[in-house]
Give the backbone structure.
Amino acid sequence: MSYDLTLRIWRGDEDGGEFQDYTVEVDEGEVVLDAVHHVQAQHAGDLAVRWNCKAGKCGSCSAEINGRPRLMCLARLSTFPQDEPITITPMRGFPVMKDLVTDVSYNYEKARQVPAFSPKAEQPQAPFVMQQVDVERSQEFRKCIECFLCQDTCHVIRDHEENKAEFAGPRFFLRYAELSMHPNDGLDRRKLVQEERGLGLCNITKCCTEVCPEGIHITDNAIIPMKERVADVKYDPLTWLGSKIRRRTPADS
Amino acid sequence: MTDATPSTNTAEGQKFSYDVVVLGAGGSGLRAAIAAHESGAKTAIVCKSLLGKAHTVMAEGGLAAAMGNVWKEDNWKVHFRDTMRGGKLLNHWRMAQLHAQEAPDRVYELEQWGALFDRTKDGLISQRDFGGHRYARLAHVGDRTGLEMIRTLQQRVVELGIDVFMETTITSLLKDGDRISGAFGYRRETGGFVTFEAPAVVLATGGIGKSWKVTSNSWEYTGDGHALALRAGATLVNMEFVQFHPTGMVWPPSVRGILVTEGVRGDGGVLKNSEGKRFMFDYIPEFFKAETADTIEEADGWYEDKTNNRRPPELLPRDEVARAINAEIKAGRGTPHGGIYLDIASRRSPEYIRKRLPSMYHQFKELAEVDITAEPMEIGPTCHYVMGGVEVDPDSAASLVPGLYAAGEVAGGMHGANRLGGNSLGDLLVFGKRAGDYAAAYASSLSNRPTITDSDLAEARNEALRPFADAGAAAENPYAMQAELQQIMNDTVALIRTASEMETALTSIEALKERLPNVRAGGDRHYNPGWHLALDLRNMLTVSEAVACAALERKESRGGHTRDDYPATDPEWGKVNIIVSLNERGSVALKHQPLPEMPAELAELLEAK
């Protein structure tokens, strides 16, 4: 069942680099990350790569495989032709540290800017009473494993470093949506996410949703509803109408 | 993720000063750091991976806490009893007591910080069934509870602005006389050295499973904290007890060992052999007979009616189930790939399975092309957890070395001879908080802070740089040596043990220790996994030796320690803990220590029906 597979891996650092080919014997059922580990063990002990769980739960081994942002631990070799090299490059959306490892500190900076969960005044102290149907929307977003593939693929920042300062990215729109839909969160972050976190820059091309290994409907369930909620605060026809129609007072008649 | 400015920054490395330094960013490390910070200590977290990637993220089924949301009969006393019985009464009673008493508050705290657990019909935190727990007790989020927990704690750490040194590895603990004075290590990105001056260090480094070939553990689980503690003069307890989780994936080979949550059985899944027989009824031990169903009807009735039915044998504690699976496979009734069938497809609807076990559904579909709503899974035992760890004071989590604390998997005592599923996440929170509180109090109580000398640092630096020295033809590949060790431990110090095999293991480990100084990392210091592994190997060998020695010493079978040559449980051994320390030659030394005496009112709880 085993066969020889060639991996074409980008090797280098912030000063530049090049592709190197490595041929390793691979086995039935293996994934790209296994093949990379064979390269490490047999040919290049210093090959830099991040990984932890090897089961699609931690989001560490993000890279671009034949140009497509993916988790290496979920990329089964059986889905690639045996006689063609598999090309692996680091995520393009972030600066390279070394080989397949990138500097993802952008994401941790954006995380620090999110105002934390803040319970409503009516129910300030856990244990909270919340219904399953009400927690489910946010639970979908909390499935996020922070692989940052959505950030990597988002065209607003992928080739536009200049947008990063004012753009939180899909992973954090997900976070803002999660807090906004948390049944017991009392903080309104809508103006913040629109005016300072760049929600408006997203033009819902759904690239983030396509690469999400958790299958989270980032665009449909998080970003679009957030845009609607933001629109409510910016321009809500009912509020506008309400402000125009005063109750009659004796002076009016 | 830190803006911290080093107090010195030279070619030889950076230096930072803190009151409390926490090693590890899993559940216990994050909880400890939050506690230390909230106590007013200047606190840093140092972790090997990125924040949010620690092993806690892989915990699946849930977090045991006697909140009584589903079964109002539940309370800390029942939880205490279940924990002690699951641990075959070798647990430190005080740890089991504190854990059972405090776990509910630790869960509510997570909710206070934004965690979204699954709910009951009344809108409370839902609780699920697990092995060894009398009542449905595990707070959970589908089967990704660990992710919810780590994300919640991570977000809390970020909110509080605690400094986190990501991708930083500690290679030495530093001492001033008897006391901890700090920690030394290196930052992966640059390969540069870093020194933390700190009077209090909390070990929250997790477990040791990477020394076995088939394991559910990630590359990080190299026993760093266990080995650092030993080298610093602390002791380990219960190291012979290693938990082999009954249900790891067995096929395809590349995923062998990856965890399949006990929640599958908690939610109705059963174990079957190749003849289609639900075999667990044949393996009910005397110790659990009174509380285990002996017919299929009673077992199936239990999920809905716990008053009139006893627990299904599939939900015996993990050690029992793992041994039974092993015996069935050995008897030739295994699956084509050498496992056993775990079947929930024929017992629950596809909707129910996808709802309750979304990660398992995803994992089998992606990695094994198996649809668990339509066909059974193939599973087998996998090295999962070490019950043994740093010997600590139960209340304060303090080790025998002043200033050194330990919490979570790296600490020993809480789980005795076998850990119940769901008790790990509670352990992380309860003792993480305690370690952080007490470490902060210790640091603030000091009138003179311990200091670090240049000679301490020179020694630590030389040790860390050895993998780059010229070794000529004697140079060894760290990856090859790791594979060798994993094979040895897998073959000889696994689920079923005998003296001759463990003696072979010790001889082999000794030979590897002699070769260790020749292990070399190719390349330079810049983000070099080979260098990292070369340094990890020292810890892995120390810990493997500790496990093998303690396992050879305990001449009985109990919990996670099963001896082919001593199959019975021996009441005399039930009174003794084996304590591990390092002698001056760096080899493992053992000592017998009587179990701490349990107060009569707690002992009575163990007999309660």
About this structure: Residues 319 and 560 of chain B are 6 Å apart (CA to CA). The first helix of chain B runs from residue 27 to 38.
